[in-house]
Amino acid sequence: MSQAKTVRVAMTETCNAYRHMPATVADLAQLLPKLEEVRRANVQHTIELIGAAAKAGAQVVGLGELFTAPYFALGEISDEIARMWRGLAEDAATGPTVLELCQTARQHGVILVAPVYELDAATGERFNSAVLIDENGLILGKYRKNHIPSGTNDQGTFSETLFYGPGQAALGNDPATNRSNSDHFPVFHTSAGCIGISICYDRHFEGVISTLAKNGAQIVFSPAVTFGQHSRLMWDLEFVVDAARHKLFIAGSNRKGIESPWNQKFFGASFFAGPNGKVPSLECSAGLVMADLNLEELSGAGSSGWDLERDARPEIYG
User: Fold this and answer.
1) Per DSSP, what are the bridge partners of residue 117?
2) Which of 236, 243, 244, 296 is nearest to 271 (CA)?
3) I want to staple 115 with a disulfide (CB 3.0 to 4.6 A). Which of 130, 188, 211, 248 is the partner?
4) 283 falls within a domain
5) Residue 264, helix vs strand vs coil
């Protein structure tokens, strides 16, 4: 397929759109009969953002990590509440969210990187995944988050291991659309370039971007839900270094806002990084971050004169 030289890319930067959350964490069980309402509110909000991005000329739109719900892996979590949130997981090909997004992609003629809370019907396992949908509404494949965090920082506790496991190999991606030799890190051929995905915690591990780069990724989408002082510090550093070192673009999106009843603040600060540093953002609608990515920056030595791939000495590295 032909490929554009400059690609206009957008990311959503928002938070839970369901407006009837309980007042306290102790009351979360009230949501049990309302999970579909929660999902629908967030999907509808996101579809509106996709429409605004498409109207502004975006060719690719990356959605937020676990965007169909509030970030539910916070604080002390009872077995009852954990079971409730697990009920949000859905099939990554036939679930209602992906079906709606396929229709939306086709309607607006945009490529979507669509994170979903996945239930694998064959195994019963759950994953934090992202589906790649092309501009014709066809699913090209999916990625499953490979590193799952659980811990405490200066602002709160997070326990994602209660809800999903690390990515499994053999995702069933079509070789005609996936150029990667790695079972865990697909790289998808699209009309807007070769797209890879890493999700949130994945970004901290040095092998992730290097594997995607070696397999031809030009744009890596890295949706996240993150907070805390150390995370905020590293947020402005990691993507810039990785994009320059591996000569690709990274679209780093973070949830933005405060979600009841936990009242945890997510700092947003979504941005694009490329071989030459941060990419200037374009003016766009609230809830979106958008930029034009010049894929020609990925070829040749660039202004640095460096050729890191040529000059690397892997035989001496420990």
Assistant:
1) 128
2) 236
3) 130
4) yes
5) strand
Indicate left, alpha or beta for 180 from its phi (over 0: left) and psi (-120 to 50: alpha).
Answer: beta
Q: Which two tokens stand for residue 30?
A: 């009230």
Are 132 and 197 in contact by the 8 Å Cβ rule? The answer is: yes
> Which uninterrupted H or E stretch holds 12?
strand 6-12
Which distant-in-sequence residues (6+ apart) come within 8 Å of 121 by Cβ? Answer: 91
In a domain, 33, yes or no: yes
Residue 69: inside a domain: yes
Asked whether residue 67 carries a pLDDT value surpassing 80, the answer given is: yes
Domain range for 14: 6-297
Q: What is the pLDDT of residues 197-239, one digit of tens each?
A: 999 999 999 999 999 999 999 999 999 999 999 999 999 999 9
The CATH number of the domain holding residue 117 is 3.60.110.10
Which pLDDT score, from 0 to 100, does residue 36 have? 98
Read off the pLDDT band of 172 (50, 70, 90). low
> At 190, is the pLDDT very low, low, confident or very high (cuts 50, 70, 90)?
very high
Contacts of 157 (CB under 8 A, 6+ apart): 74, 75, 76, 151
Return the structure tokens found at 233: 């510090």
Summary mean pLDDT of the chain: 95
Once rounded to an integer, what is the mean pLDDT over residues 129-143?
Answer: 97
Number of folded domains that form the chain: 1
Query: Is 312 within the bounds of a domain?
Result: no
In this structure, how many other beta carbons lie within 10 angstroms of the beta carbon of residue 80?
10
Strands 277-279 and 256-259: unpaired
Q: In whole angstroms, give the CA distance from residue 300 to residue 74.
A: 45
